[in-house]
C-alpha cells in the first residue's frame, strides 16, 4: 500500500482491512436502494447542501459496524463529523451525490476510505443503484473482481468530466474553460462515479472544486491503484486540509498537461 502503513495484527492486516471495507459497502448498498426513488424529506444543511434520512441512516449503520469491529479506529463522516486524531481513521461519505440521489439519478455512491497519517491507504467506491463497485489500495485497483486500469490518452483526445460547471468561479472558471478547450470532449455529472470510470479507462480527466475531505479520500487509492494521478490543482498530494480543488488524470503525462492549464489561471 502507498502513503501510509498498517501494523499487521489481529484483524488489521491489509487483506482484513480491505475485506472489512467491502463488508461496510455491502451493508450500505441495500439501505441506499431502499430509500432511492422514494418520497423523502430533503433538508438543507448550514452550507446549503441537501441531506436526507438516507444519508444519516447509512452513516449511522457504518459507524456502528466500525465501532464494533475496530473500536480503536477513528471515524470521520459527512453527517456526524470526526477528526484524524487516531492512527487509523475511517472516512465515510454515505451518499456522495445527494443531489443525484434525490432527483432519481443512479450515479450517486457510497465512499469508504481508511486513512493513515493523513493519507488514504485503501478504499471502496460503491454505486448502489447500479450494483457496481471499485476498490483500491494505491498499488492496485479493481472494478468488481477485475483489475482496473486507466487509459494512456493525451490531452487532445482526453475525455474530461466535472460534476457541474457551477462549481468553478472567477479565475478557476477561466482555467477550467481553458482546459475544456484543449480536450477531446467534456461531460458533466457523475459525482464519484466519474472517478471509477477514469480508473477503468472510460474517461481520462476529472476536475473539481469545492470538495470536502470526505468527498475525496476514497478516490485516491482507486485512481492511483489503477495507474492514474490525483492531486490538488498545484500538483500536491491530497491531505485532510486540501483546498477543495482536485484534478484526477489517467496518466502522469496527461496530469502534467492538465496542470499547465489549471495553473495558468489569472
TrEMBL record:
Its cofactor is Mg(2+). Gene3D superfamilies: 3.40.190.80, Fructose-1,6-Bisphosphatase, subunit A, domain 1 (3.30.540.10). CDD domains: Bacterial_IMPase_like_1 (cd01641). PROSITE patterns: IMP_1 (PS00629). InterPro entries: Inositol_monoP_metal-BS, Inositol_monoP_superfamily, Inositol_monophosphatase-like. It holds the Pfam family Inositol_P. PANTHER family: 3'(2'),5'-BISPHOSPHATE NUCLEOTIDASE (PTHR43200:SF6), PHOSPHATASE (PTHR43200). This is Inositol monophosphatase family protein. It comes from Methylobacterium marchantiae. The lineage of its organism: Bacteria, Pseudomonadati, Pseudomonadota, Alphaproteobacteria, Hyphomicrobiales.
Amino acid at each position: 500500500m502507498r502513503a501510509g502503513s498498517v501494523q499487521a495484527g489481529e484483524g488489521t492486516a491489509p487483506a482484513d482491512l480491505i475485506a472489512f471495507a467491502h463488508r461496510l459497502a455491502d451493508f450500505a448498498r441495500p439501505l441506499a436502494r431502499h430509500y432511492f426513488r422514494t418520497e423523502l424529506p430533503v433538508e438543507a444543511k448550514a452550507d446549503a447542501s441537501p441531506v436526507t434520512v438516507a444519508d444519516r441512516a447509512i452513516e449511522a449503520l457504518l459507524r456502528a459496524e466500525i465501532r464494533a469491529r475496530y473500536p480503536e479506529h477513528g471515524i470521520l463522516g459527512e453527517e456526524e463529523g470526526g477528526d484524524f486524531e487516531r492512527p487509523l481513521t475511517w472516512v465515510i461519505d454515505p451518499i456522495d451525490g445527494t443531489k443525484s440521489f434525490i432527483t432519481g439519478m443512479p450515479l450517486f455512491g457510497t465512499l469508504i476510505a481508511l486513512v493513515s497519517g493523513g493519507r488514504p491507504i485503501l478504499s471502496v467506491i460503491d454505486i448502489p443503484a447500479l450494483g457496481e463497485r471499485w476498490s483500491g489500495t494505491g498499488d492496485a485497483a479493481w472494478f468488481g473482481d477485475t483489475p482496473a486500469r486507466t487509459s494512456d490518452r493525451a490531452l487532445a483526445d482526453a475525455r474530461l468530466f466535472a460534476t457541474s460547471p457551477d462549481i468553478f468561479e472567477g479565475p478557476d472558471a477561466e482555467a477550467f474553460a481553458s482546459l475544456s478547450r484543449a480536450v477531446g470532449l467534456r461531460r458533466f455529472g457523475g459525482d464519484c462515479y466519474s472517478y471509477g470510470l477514469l480508473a477503468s479507462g472510460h474517461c481520462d480527466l476529472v476536475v473539481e472544486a469545492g470538495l470536502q475531505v470526505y468527498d475525496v479520500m476514497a478516490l485516491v487509492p482507486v485512481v492511483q491503484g489503477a495507474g492514474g494521478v490525483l492531486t490538488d490543482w498545484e500538483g500536491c498530494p491530497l491531505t485532510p486540509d486540501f483546498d477543495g480543488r482536485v484534478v484526477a488524470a489517467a496518466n502522469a503525462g496527461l496530469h502534467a498537461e492538465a496542470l499547465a492549464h489549471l495553473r495558468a489561471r489569472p
